[in-house]
Specification:
With 351 residues, this protein is mainly β. It has a single domain, classed as Beta-galactosidase, Chain A, domain 5 (Distorted Sandwich). It is 3% helix and 42% strand. It contains two helices and 29 strands. The strands form eight sheets. Strands 11-12-13-14-29-23-22-17-20 form a nine-stranded antiparallel sheet, with no helix packed on it. It has a five-stranded antiparallel sheet with strand order 1-2-3-4-5. The longest helix has 6 residues. It starts with a strand and ends with a strand.
Length: 351
């Protein structure tokens, strides 16, 4: 295993960003930048041993300073939507930025993917890790508590990308961290992912109102276009005349995972038939947002390629959207001094 560094350009403030390259014994390569702790590239082989980059992104730090779609992004302090851009904690109301209509989305206008991070690297016999960390100060983005955060990416020789999120606050707060990588297993320049097949181990999902805020209902997927309990092409039902799909312009929904939450368990798969690439998804989180890139609009990315609608699919492990305002949902409240510790694994192979 090896970790290499190279320049990734300078930010608008003149700060030098670095690209970190991790490569395992099988040849799988993953790259990250200390600007935003973002995933930049994931190169994995197809059935013939040919390598392609299977995540959408940009060639330099300038792209990630814009990055409206959130390619490769480390998301916080609260992933997904908070209705009315406010929540109440310990009897006090906190007002957040309204950056998604009347709602708060992914923390606000400046999410965790737009900060510089301290870096530590660790090399082991069968894996390499890179840890990005920073202090998110009290009331940053409107959230209470000084939050010590780190995200550690580990590349194993089994072609697993392990993501571990750790956070501790000095005050009660809310925390919901995720990664917003857009996957296209045919290669980032191959266009639509509608022919990719998805499996999610989830019997239920959380319907939303027209602003994509959960109503509080937890609905069975049986007999609906939302059912991915067995492998199904993304495009099979995406245009169905079904309220939740019409509201979101495709899949942009939180699924209630069939897991205990105490252990990291397999909860999903993504399969691409032409290349025979497969990605398995593991987590100990209670929910996952399936998002099919409905709002990508002529975004110029890596190698000058222009990404269009549905050029990638996201699997954002998370607490349910707006859980801070929904007592019936698992709580994203982090008590002072307690540790937030969740893991997501993306494992790559060929069929």
């Amino acid at each position: 295993m090896s970790i290499k560094k190279q320049s990734f350009g300078k930010t608008k403030e003149g700060v030098e960003a670095t690209l970190f390259v991790l490569k395992n014994k099988k040849g799988m390569t993953v790259t990250f930048t200390d600007y935003g702790a973002n995933i930049v590239n994931i190169l994995v082989p197809d059935k013939n041993g040919n390598y392609d980059d299977v995540v959408l992104g940009y060639d330099n730090v300038t792209g990630y300073e814009g990055n409206a779609p959130g390619f490769g992004s480390f998301i916080g302090r609260h992933a997904n939507r908070i209705g009315g851009a406010s929540f109440e904690l310990n009897g006090k109301k906190y007002e957040l930025e309204k950056n998604d209509g009347e709602n708060n989305l992914h923390g606000g206008f400046k999410g965790y993917n737009k900060f510089m991070y301290e870096v530590e690297t660790f090399e082991d016999e069968d894996s390499d890790s890179i840890e990005f960390s920073r202090l998110s100060p009290h009331m940053e983005q409107g959230f209470p508590g000084n939050l010590d955060i780190s995200v550690t990416y580990t590349l194993t020789d089994d072609n697993e990308l392990v993501i571990e999120y750790l956070a501790v606050s000095d005050k009660d707060t809310i925390v919901n961290l995720t990664n917003h990588s857009y996957f296209n297993l045919a290669g980032h320049k191959s266009g639509s992912v509608l022919d990719h097949q998805v499996m999610l181990d989830a019997d239920k999902f959380t319907p939303t109102d027209d602003a994509l805020i959960p109503t509080g209902e937890i609905r069975d997927v049986t007999g609906t276009p939302m059912d991915f309990r067995t492998l199904k092409p993304i495009g099979q039902d995406i245009e169905a005349n079904y309220g939740p799909l019409k509201q979101a312009g495709g899949y942009d929904h939180n699924y209630v995972l069939n897991i205990s939450g105490s252990e990291v368990e397999k909860i999903g798969e993504l399969v691409e038939d032409k290349t025979k690439r497969k990605m398995e998804i593991f987590t100990n989180m209670t929910g996952i947002q399936l998002y099919t890139g409905n709002f990508i609009n002529a975004e110029k990315g890596k190698d000058g390629f222009v990404y269009q609608k549905r050029a990638g699919v996201c699997f954002e492990t998370q607490y349910f959207p707006d859980s801070c305002n929904r007592s019936e949902f698992p709580s994203c409240v982090l008590k002072a001094g307690n540790e937030y510790d969740f893991v997501t694994v993306f494992k790559f192979s060929t069929k």
